[in-house]
Amino acid sequence: MVINTNLSAQSSASLLMQSSSQLSKSLARLSSGSKITSPADDSAGLAVSMKLSAEMSRIDAASNNVGNAISFNQTQDGYLQKVSDALSRMSELSVLSQDVTKSDSDRGLYQQEFNTLATYINDVATKDFNGVSLFNGGTLNVTVDSDANTFPMSGIDLTAAAFSGLASDSIGTTTGAIAALTDVKTAITQLAADRATIGAHIESLTMDSDQLGTLKNNLSAANSRIMDVDVAQESTSYAKYNILVQTGTAMLAQANALPQSVLKLLS
């Protein structure tokens, strides 16, 4: 029996240190809700999780872009619905002005309303959405995924001759009313095509938005399997290491007391 080197105490202390370290890790996981509280826990898993988290952030940004683009198109269509009403009334006025029972004075009143509606259409052409022109005809490339791929959103041009030329039409005479009706019908045809284009944009962007939502859910599930702690399993581990720490502490105390038995040999 030796007293200078207490191998039992050293072994007990080493095991107690290991149990204490595992207990501390278990506490950190339970309190944080994460399996990986430091790179040493799972370096490869942490690297994968970081990339997944970054991609999900980019998906959120792309979703915002797509949502704003949908709002942009819906705003466009809201204006075009009113332009459609204006064109419909202008076509009606063009036909009314061709009534042989109407006097020039009557046609003058029709002309006044016709000009007001044409001015309204030209005014709509100047509208914008957060500083971006709604109707200048320019194509806008919308970012639709986390890799910054884009969807080309064709522009709507209310400054085109089919619309702007209506301001110079006159329905003050029967001949002028016939020509104006032809121009208005051309504008209506163009407007129908423009609204169909907007509808296609909204449908496509809505599908992109749905796809981004599904992708984010899948990535979140994958990241959760890497990072999120299983509370039931970790609680079991915590109880295990807690018992080991307590028993290890007791055994270390016993091991430290063993050399005292040497005193019995000396008495």
Q: What can you tell me about this protein's structure?
A:
It is a single chain. By secondary structure, the protein is mainly alpha-helical. The protein has 2 domains: 7-33 and 229-266; 43-227, Up-down Bundle (f41 fragment of flagellin, N-terminal domain). Helices cover 72% and strands 4% of the residues. The protein has helices at 7-32, 43-96, 104-124, 161-164, 174-227, 231-257, 262-266; strands at residues 128-129, 132-133, 140-143, 150-153. Helix 1 packs antiparallel against helix 6 (231-257), helix 2 runs antiparallel to helix 3 and helix 2 packs antiparallel against helix 5 (174-227). The protein is rod-shaped and about 140 Å long.
Strand arrangement within the widest β-sheet reads 1-2
Q: Report the top-level CATH class of the largest domain.
A: Mainly Alpha
Structural class: mainly alpha
Principal-axes geometry comes out as: rod-shaped
- CATH architecture heading of the largest domain: Up-down Bundle
Number of strands: 4
Question: Can you give the helix content as a percent range?
Answer: over 70%
Average pLDDT reading: 91
Beginning-to-end CA distance, first to last residue: 16 Å
Main attributes?
267 residues; mainly alpha; f41 fragment of flagellin, N-terminal domain; two-stranded antiparallel ribbon
